Amino acid sequence: EIVLTQSPGTLSLSPGERATLSCRASQSVSSSYLAWYQQKPGQAPRLLIYGASSRATGIPDRFSGSGSGTDFTLTISRLEPEDFAVYYCQQYGSSPPLFTFGPGTKVDIK
Amino acid sequence: QLQLQESGPGLVKPSETLSLTCTVSGGSISSSSYYWGWIRQPPGKGLEWIGSIYYSGSTYYNPSLKSRVTISVDTSKNQFSLKLSSVTAADTAVYYCARLVAAAGVAAWGQGTLVTVSS
Q1: What is the CATH number of the domain that holds A46?
Q2: B55 vs A: CB within 8 A
Q3: Of A15, A92, B52, B118, which cross-links B37 as Cys (Cβ 3.0–4.6 Å)?
């Protein structure tokens, strides 16, 4: 069973700054099966990135994903006020077909 | 536009069975290549995948919950359901139903329903 670790746990930044979030897997993950989500208080998560680097429908281009193997990164190029939230990575393992979430990174206002 | 809506009791007693139903509208639950599943989030904590049912009917469960979970589908009603047995306070969470795609993540979520386990 693959375990996902996210770092840092909390990232304190100011609007306009660049945010770099890390997701590390305990064993190699297919890039096709790595996704990122944003969650704000009281809301369901929203899909941002799938296939490690493809933006979901309607996601601004300030959000980008990269990585392969065991190390993946979500980058927010310039933080907007609405980007302060919790971010989760998620992987799909095909044998057996299980879905796993990371513990999350909170991006809060410095 | 695909919509998912959870329904079921908001309060369950310890040792009893939690039962939730997800009603899908705007799309068929029989569509190929989709998993329909449940994800939960304890208050103040992260997301936990509970399990999924594939369009073919095959079910897959989180190993940590497998002995207590059953997910089933009713294609005639375009619904799928979750049963979690022998609940404890640790099962108190917001429960989301969702459509999952292996290579495209979870793009469709229900609004979530809070289930509290308490006597």
Answers
A1: 2.60.40.10
A2: no
A3: B52
